[in-house]
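Q&A FORM
Asked by: J.P.
Topic: structure of Methyltransferase family protein

PROVIDED:
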Amino acid sequence: MSAWRPPQGGRQFTRPALEQWLGSPRGRELLTLEQRELGRVLPEVFGRHVLQIGSWGRGHELLEGAETLHQAVLGTVGDFGATALSETERLPIAAKTVDAVVLPHTLEFTHTPHNLLREANRILTDRGRLFVVGFNPWGVWGLRQRLGLRSRAFPAGARFYSVGRLCDWLELLDLEVTEVRRFGVGFPWNAPRSDGEPWSLASLTRPFAETYLLSAKKRVLPMNFVGRVQRAQVRQLVGVASPAARRGESLQSRNEAPSDPAPAA
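REPLIED BY: S.T.
REPLY: Here is the structure written out as tokens.
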């Protein structure tokens, strides 16, 4: 009986494919909307470092809303303004050094998305945040892929993952999902909305939005160091000591006063 293997993900796109997508009207419009949605949540990150993993956009385009001291892009395709290039499954970054990780459509074009999520969790600090931008498999691009109507401008080799499946993976990594935001530039033509908002007619088409932004944070149990219990000190009530307290302080001062030295022989 063969050992169970996790399902394989997509394959990395090439530089010409990314240039063609970002040069198309649909690609630029969607990138602008994704930048706007990330700009809504990135200012909530407190710390020093925000890291984008994956080449999507040019340079720090998606990280412009971050207010941390340092922002970096660890890309997979050259000539797109990345700070450095690296494999997504093996990140050359020390553990617990990054305050927020942004994955803009990186899971769709990664051969082993589970390893990528584990690496992102490894480099996050104890109060780290994770932001995943992904394509909805029940959205326009997912349905086009199922019907074989692939757009010539869209990078080939993508594998889409639903929000529910992504939440299951994050649960295993002890990451808590805080918000799921759905939006898109195609059908359905609705304004960006978050899951859990009051019901409306537009919420009926929310599951079919082509893109989502998932926000998560690490679950950290507070660590309390139990030290030596100190005795409580009795303080004066409203700044005036009682007569008994004054007599006690006077007696204590006499007992603690040094005795006169004995006369020399």
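FOLLOW-UP: Residues 1-7, 234-241 have pLDDT under 50 and may be disordered.
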